[in-house]
Automatic annotation (TrEMBL):
Residues 1-99 bind DNA. It comes from the Bacteria. This is DNA-binding transcriptional activator of the SARP family. PANTHER family: TRANSCRIPTIONAL REGULATOR REDD, TRANSCRIPTIONAL REGULATOR REDD-RELATED. Belongs to the AfsR/DnrI/RedD regulatory family. GO terms for biological process: phosphorelay signal transduction system; regulation of DNA-templated transcription. InterPro entries: AfsR-DnrI-RedD_regulator, BTAD, OmpR/PhoB-type_DNA-bd, Sig_transdc_resp-reg_C-effctor, TPR-like_helical_dom_sf, WH-like_DNA-bd_sf. Residues 1-99 form the OmpR/PhoB-type domain. One of its GO terms (molecular function) is DNA binding.
């Protein structure tokens, strides 16, 4: 008999077409034991470790017997009539969920991401999207006493943010502009200091010819990094910014682009480091972000004088 356990979102167990919600799985501590074992799918979890988690290192004298009674409740619910021969096994003072008989959505999420590693964008992108579809809610969202699960939740949230950033990068490579922007914004919202996500967002907006939005995104990132990290965005984002400035200088430079260029030059005046960040253009000649910003303003002024 196989069962499916959902840890992403509210806890649910599916067995033989029947859905068991948290309320049907026993007391809060019994449900927590099932969650602990599902988070460690296929790995033995010692009884002492479970006791330490459930009672925060201060267990009652009958803790071992109490845990065994909780495990019996779980078995009656998820493998009725099978005693200790079903998916939940006992092994030398430890408990283990058999991965051959149990499917956990968190495990499937992680394996789906892993399947995208090292593959080409056309193959990786649908796998990453499939993983993100699985992660449509927070991990263990209905667990109220979640201190014991904090590390698992934080790790999962970081995985989702990284997966979103990767999906955005793959979407850019595939020319799926709107999808790239969608996933990048999701990653930035989850991890505002994730430079990879900001880069994917600016690249996606640039690819979609949404230059003003891309410049705004870069400036938001720059201000955030200066405030929180006391540094500027890295070379990839600065290169994207230079491209955006060149692109807008070749077209009608709206006031917003000119202001963005002025902000860039103002940063140069304030820093007075004597050394600008050198970027490499496609034609092989060295230039700087500040020189490019100057060309935007120069182009704008020339058109303004010509039309006066």
């Amino acid at each position: 008999m196989g069962i499916s356990i959902k840890l992403i979102g509210p806890l649910r167990v599916e067995r033989d077409g029947q859905v068991l919600t948290a309320a049907k799985l026993g007391s809060p501590k019994a449900r927590q034991i099932l969650e602990i074992l599902a988070l460690q799918l296929g790995r033995p979890v010692p009884r002492e470790q479970i006791i330490n988690i459930l009672w925060h290192g201060n267990p009652p004298s009958a803790a071992s017997a109490t845990v065994e009674s909780y495990v019996s409740v779980i078995r009656r619910n998820i493998q009725p009539g099978q005693a200790k021969n079903g998916p939940l096994r006992t092994d030398k003072g430890s408990y283990i969920l058999d991965p051959k008989l149990v499917q956990v959505d968190l495990d499937l999420f992680e394996r789906t991401i892993g399947a995208a590693d090292g593959t080409k964008p056309a193959e990786a992108y649908p796998k990453l999207v499939s993983a993100l579809d699985l992660a449509s809610a927070p991990l263990l969202s209905d667990e109220l006493t979640f201190e014991w699960a904090e590390s698992a939740r934080a790790r999962h949230a970081a995985q989702v943010a990284d997966c979103s950033a990767r999906a955005a990068e793959m979407a850019v490579k595939l020319g799926k502009t709107d999808e790239a922007v969608h996933w990048a914004r999701q990653a930035v919202a989850a991890e505002p200091l994730n430079e990879r996500a900001w880069t994917a967002l600016v690249d996606g907006l640039e690819q979609g010819a949404r230059y003003i939005e891309a410049l705004q995104a870069y400036d938001n990132c720059r201000l955030l990094f200066r405030r929180e990290l006391r540094c500027n965005p890295g070379p990839l984002l600065q290169a994207a910014y230079a491209r955006l400035l060149r692109c807008t200088s070749d077209e009608d430079a709206e006031l917003e682009e000119v202001l963005s260029a002025l902000i860039c030059l103002n940063e140069r005046v304030k820093s007075r480091t004597g050394k600008a960040c050198t970027l490499k253009q496609a034609d092989g000649h060295d230039t700087t972000v500040y020189e490019t910003a100057g060309s935007v303003i120069d182009s704008f002024l020339r058109r303004a004088l010509a039309s006066a």
